[in-house]
# Entry
Amino acid sequence: MCIRDRSYTLDLETSGLQLRAKTYVGFLRGIETFAQLVYRRKAKSGSGVEFYIPQTPIMIADAPVFAHRGLMLDTSRHFFSKETLKKLLDGLMFSKFSVFHWHLTDDDSYPMQLDAFPTLFEKAVFSPAERYTKADMKEILDHGRKRGLRIIPEIESPGHARSWSLDPSIYDIVTCPNGSSKGIPHGYLDPTMNRTYEVVGTMFKELFDMFPDEFVHVAGDEVEFDCWKKRQSIVDWMAEHNVSDFVALSQIYQDKQREVLKSLDAKRTLTYWIEERTDNMTYKDDDVLQTWGTVGNYSTLVERHPRNKWIISANDHLYLDCGTGNYFGGNSWCEPYKTWWQIYNLNLTSLVNPENILGAEAALWSELVTEDVLDAKLWPRLVALSEATWTPEFASKTSVARRLNAFGERLRERGYLVNPITAQWCEMNIEGCF
# Structure
């Protein structure tokens, strides 16, 4: 029996029901399907309500096409409380997602407790109330596991590491920590220092002790080479070691980081963000690549890395923070807003060979997102991705709108603040609008 088997069968008769699944998670998915078949109405007698299933008998045999159906949430640009994240995990379970990709650190903050770096936990946070203790993270991990969700952690490096510099004991491994222009300062780890890899190893050892999933996300993208160029010791080291350019230096960091992490746990699968500045780098065949480029970039990337497995996060379909401006009051870099129909119509197999696709993740970066607006940013349009990766049969717009509208109502009943997908008249007259 495969432990990743998520299939189930559900037989509903007027006299009762029978749910069969080979795994706990498959059973959870079947329970959710059953819950979505149950409706509530005013009782025919008395003043109460009654629950009913409109059409029986119903026989369902179901399983997802893509195993990796996820959401990436950035909790380093704005903080999201433990209770908010637990509610989010509930919503992912209701929507039959399988993965929560937790972007834990960035330039802005390092809000996770590590015993080896107590000063980070003190200084690299927005406030003492806005950070995750080890007990908090364990509670969140347990909450997700019970809901059939994998939680994949991400510590960003070598770029987006300005927050590391707030610990004086490791300040020297970060280049350009104070920035030179308006906006959030950026920091980049120095790949030429042995101390850098000692720190990386210490951090990830604690991370591995907390997060059991076989995947770990190590980022690897968006390194500004001008910053490395400004540190003379890096330039001198490159000359001494015949390193021709900064892409080659990035490769050195990646290779040494992999060596360190594999020495800690050889079974971990390393996942990387890949983009134009890193697409010429070399990856091991068992590395998983996740690209945030547009769909037009995929053919080149896949051609260069044909043996790797892929997670699709195309920003022109799956970046949920787009279309609401930037933190300078201008337009966001990834305009326009991504609608539920854009999300649903992303055809994964048109981008990557089906045998190389693990699945897809929507991404919500939090520069302009707080927990006050989290629900409305996600629901119900995120569910369009769940449906497209569970059963990618590309139903009609009318059919999808009807299901999203109905599911949005169920989420409201469960306490979520849900955005409408259409006008109220259309909600009541789906056929008349789609």
Summary: The mean pLDDT is 94. The first helix runs from residue 24 to 37. The CA atoms of residues 183 and 317 lie 27 Å apart.
